[in-house]
Amino acid sequence: SDKTWCGRVLSEHDKVLKDYGNLTCLTRFPPEPNGYLHIGHAKSMFLNFNYAKQHNGKTILRFDDTNPEKENVEFVESIKADVHWMGHEIFKTTFTSSYFPRLYAIAVEFIKAGLAYVDDQTDADMKLYRGTKPDGTQCEPRDPPCRFNSIETNLREFQRMKDGFYREGERTLRLKIDMRHANPTMRDPVAYRIKFCEHHRTGTEWCIYPSYDFSHCLIDSFEDITHSMCTLEFQIRQIVYNYVTERAKVYLPMQWEFNRLNLTQTVMSKRKLLQLVTDKHVRGWDDPRMPTIRGLRRRGFTPAALNALCAAAGVTRSDSQTIRASLLERCVREDLDASAPRAFAVVSPVKVVIENFAELLATHPDSATVEGDAIICTHPLKVTADTYTERLTSELFIEESDFMATPTKGFLRLFPGGSVGLRFGPTIQLAKEGAVFTEGGMTVLRVTGVWGATPSKFIHWVSAADAVPAEVRLYGPLFEDEKPDLSDGWEKRLNPDSLVVKRGYVSRFVAETARIEGHYQFERLGFFVVDKDTVMTKGKVTSLVVNRTVGLRDSFK
Ligand code: ATP
Ligand code: MG
Ligand code: MG
């Protein structure tokens, strides 16, 4: 005998899950293809794909494409690629638009059963009749006059809507539920609206498009979704979801709500992200400052780090969940710490000339490491037991911040009259006077090297003879405010220093091993990733661009 639920036969649903390989769970991730996926979607993906995976289930990627004016194929393709990059396995890819004929047929059935009617009210009147005056105060709800039209009239009018007889906004199809229902979403919600806009999949076939309230529940049911997860703002609409599936006499999926994930010092809604792109506040959807999956990827975040963040954030039902950017940074640091090779790079170079270099070579305590005009230093990769070699030559670049012409109190690195250790190499001393020059706009320090000293600090360096120039892009938060969304004019409070570009140098090892999206830890500077703007010729770097993913310590407030 057939199992039923709310009077509906479940055997068909069970059969489908059986055909799919005896699944006990089927979830869906339903993005609208109107923008690129962001870190909030990473949470939704994490929940939908992981829940299914852990419960003998699978996950459908469903494009919820009912607003043709904002959607396009570029977004569809980018979303597919991002889901894949995040490491999720897509069971099937579907589109709400594929169900347009089936939804239309159900709408006609609803009209025939007296459950829907064509209305001519404007948005403003609809709101007023639902019980909200233009000034926002409440009033008595009223039945719209069209509510009492005959089934024949409604059938004819709906056909006219479909045939393009009316202009946008002139008619809607509404569900005839209850204009005085305590839950305002039940006050005759809109099921179809008119839109004269070419759809990226159905072209000009349709000029009426189903609403979320009418389509989402039915398609969850058509697709035999067992657990339909959505963000909390839809909780109030659950009653409509249940109503529509019940009246359509189709299987009712279980619904679960979770809260939206937000990040500090950025915006998350696709509308605002789009505005950042179109107003050229950022260089595109994949700008490394963007909270999009593409942006985070280009910044050097890994799928493991983003999924770890979602796991750490967890699922709660409190209204909002604002994750501090520092938690995201910690997740990526942990992941890259285990995998990124260590190397030297200098972001803001000053030049060091070791004047007695020949003497240093001759007196090296381990003469086996001297090769020609260089000292061969063994640099541990740390990720594995492997090492590589770095040549220390007479001319080096060191970090500008490791030198002070007039040292502040407690500054222990290089200053006139002071000394500092070069990692893997000698200690260098800077004379009190006459050793600091400027050449071609760059500071040059003429130093003396000694072996056997015990400096209090060691600094990193790159050989001027071997190092490869690199454009180094350093990032800060997009916004200074913790929650820029909360106030008007959010787009005017951008952090002017969210991108700082430096002309630096990386060690030969980096240039030789670089590939787009390859990660490194530049010692004392942070984790970096090779940007796609890098130019490679025959597998060799000819112009290197690196992005700082994250510093070694928390940089956010
Ligand atoms: P946006 O305001 O960014 O356009 P949306 O909810 O309209 O968000 P969709 O593309 O429809 O975006 O979202 C696809 C899925 O991802 C939905 O299930 C949605 O609830 C979920 N989602 C979107 N943003 C977030 C977020 N910030 N946190 C968690 N889940 C989210
Ligand atoms: Mg949506
Ligand atoms: Mg949206």
UniProtKB/TrEMBL annotation:
GO biological process: glutaminyl-tRNA aminoacylation
Cellular component aspect of the GO annotation: cytosol
Keyword line: Aminoacyl-tRNA synthetase, ATP-binding, Ligase, Nucleotide-binding, Protein biosynthesis
Residues annotated as domain Glutamyl/glutaminyl-tRNA synthetase class Ib anti-codon binding: 340-430
GO molecular function: ATP binding; glutamine-tRNA ligase activity
Residue ranges of domain Glutamyl/glutaminyl-tRNA synthetase class Ib catalytic in the record: 26-337
Domain tRNA synthetases class I (E and Q) anti-codon binding: 458-531
Keyword Heme: no
Reaction(s) the record says it catalyses: tRNA(Gln) + L-glutamine + ATP = L-glutaminyl-tRNA(Gln) + AMP + diphosphate
EC number(s) on file: 6.1.1.18
Name of the top EC class for this enzyme: ligase
Family, as annotated: Belongs to the class-I aminoacyl-tRNA synthetase family.
Protein name: glutamine--tRNA ligase
Species in which this protein is naturally found: Carpediemonas membranifera
Organismal lineage: Eukaryota, Metamonada, Carpediemonas-like organisms, Carpediemonas
Residues of the full protein shown: 157 to 713 of 713
